[in-house]
Design goal:
Layout: H1 33-37, E1 41-46, H2 56-70, E2 83-85, E3 93-96, H3 98-103, E4 133-139, E5 146-151, E6 161-164, E7 174-177, H4 190-203, E8 208-213, E9 226-230, H5 236-239, E10 242-248, E11 252-257, E12 265-269, H6 273-289, E13 294-299, E14 304-309, H7 312-317, H8 323-327, H9 334-338, E15 340-343, H10 346-350, H11 354-364, H12 368-381, E16 384-391, H13 394-408, E17 416-422
Parallel strand pairs: 1-4, 3-15
Antiparallel strand pairs: 1-5, 2-3, 4-6, 6-7, 7-9, 8-9, 8-13, 10-11, 11-12, 12-14, 13-14, 16-17
Length: 426
């Protein structure tokens, strides 16, 4: 099935130079602050309501994004990229995006450390052109959605902004940059994750998803940011069945993904977005502090979050990835892991199949043994304990064995999951 993509005028080469000149003195790029200080941007304040009265954020974002298309600020026309849904049970999505491969900014930091300090001498978002910023985005103080045209930029409070991704994967591809002028490194904290959940909620569209890549899991810029875009088909990972592991405090349900090539957790529900953010944020911080690369997908308008530890870069460094997969030059980050396969070679696009997608993603996944070790770290960090070990049903056990067979060339046995209970502090 071919996807129908909204067409916009053809864009020319990117306005930015590939090699951004250093803003004198290095540091955090604050030499560029006058661009922000003297420029006013629209501002959107997010409410804490689950059902905003209208999807104003969506119309604003797309309107501003198309305005930047007309100005020629993107490096290539993403709407000209061929896209199709691959036949199969999961409906993996394949896109041929040769422009992103040729023009994407290279990684400028180590890939074996999840936590690294911010380095102002490297590219960061204080160095982007001011015309790439769409608007500010922040939480409302009174629970109401508000829009302020031409709002002044308060440099002292370091606004959170939404900017275009000049090397887009899809229509409406943007970056959410929390507290941009604080120059935070690429590591999740509770406040920034909550902001991302609010953005997903206010967009009010289940096909608008946010993603996060840690360092070591194919983030390419060490300046805190989330990505987001629209794609009006279900992601394969969203279709995967899950098995509930525990009820967490605040009404959050934590489950394990089944029958999918990448092992991971799903966090759902919560009495508020803060409850969901706390559970996911604590888990992400645990992975960061234990130097475990991971990806995050925020789905279903901010009510469902996938947490996916991965090891592909480590396998690459150890020479454990097959030459066939390396030749594709696909770096499986959050979008690829979720089932949107951004391919760089025409031959891979034309030969795209569910088996090929599964084979690549199986290399991303932790082994069953390592995944259980990581689960133990997470549940210890969020005050959960294993109270009972139970064997998986035969069907589910076989599915997980199949994933390991793709990873290791042989079946794993004796797969066991733990029933979890959480200690809630009153």
């Amino acid at each position: 099935m071919m996807l129908r993509i909204k067409r916009v005028p053809t864009v020319v080469s990117n306005y930015q130079k590939d090699d951004v000149e250093e803003a004198g003195g290095g540091g955090c790029g604050r030499a560029k602050l006058p661009l922000y200080a003297f420029q006013k941007y629209d501002k959107v304040e997010s409410s804490d309501k689950k059902d905003p009265p209208f999807a104003f954020l969506e119309s604003l974002l797309l309107g501003e994004w198309e305005d930047r298309v007309e100005r020629g600020l993107f490096r290539y026309d993403v709407t000209a990229c061929s896209t199709k849904v691959i036949p199969g049970d999961y409906g993996f999505i394949a896109q041929l995006n040769e422009g992103r491969h040729l023009k994407k900014r290279p990684t400028e930091f180590r890939v074996d450390k999840v936590l690294q300090p911010f380095d102002g001498s490297k590219f960061n978002f204080t160095k982007v052109g001011q015309e790439e910023i769409l608007f500010q985005f922040e939480a409302s103080n009174d629970g109401e959605v508000k829009f302020y045209p031409n709002a002044p930029v308060d440099v002292e409070t370091s606004p959170s902004v939404v900017a275009i991704n000049v090397s887009p994967i899809e229509y409406g591809h943007v970056l959410l940059i929390p507290r941009i002028l604080e120059c935070l490194p690429q590591r999740i904290d509770h406040e920034s994750l909550l902001l991302a959940l609010y953005m997903a909620s206010e967009a009010g569209n289940p096909y608008f998803r946010l993603g996060y890549n840690s360092l070591g899991a194919f983030a390419t810029i060490n300046h805190l940011h989330f990505q987001a875009y629209y794609l009006a088909v279900p992601f394969p990972i969203e279709k995967a069945p899950t098995r509930k592991i525990t009820d967490f405090k605040g009404g959050v349900v934590i489950s394990e993904i089944l029958k999918y090539p990448v092992r991971g957790l799903v966090f759902e529900g919560g009495y508020s977005l803060e409850d969901l953010s706390n559970a996911v944020g604590d888990s992400c911080i645990c992975l960061q502090e234990n130097n475990i690369p991971y990806n995050v997908l925020i789905s279903d308008s901010g009510t469902r979050v996938f947490l996916l530890p991965q090891c592909y870069a480590e396998k690459q460094a150890l020479g454990e990835v097959s030459p066939e997969l390396l030749d594709t030059q696909v770096n499986p980050a959050v979008w690829e892991i979720s089932g949107h396969m951004v391919l760089k070679r025409k031959e891979d696009y034309e030969g795209a199949s569910e088996d090929n997608a599964w084979r690549l993603l199986a290399e991303v996944s932790l082994s069953e043994a390592r995944f259980q070790e990581v689960l133990a770290l997470i549940f210890e960090a969020i005050s959960c304990v294993v109270t009972e070990n139970v064997s998986l049903p035969d069907e589910d056990e076989q599915d997980l064995e199949d994933v390991d067979a793709l990873n290791n060339g042989s079946h794993q046995t004796a797969i066991v999951a733990g029933k979890q209970e959480c200690l809630v502090q009153h």
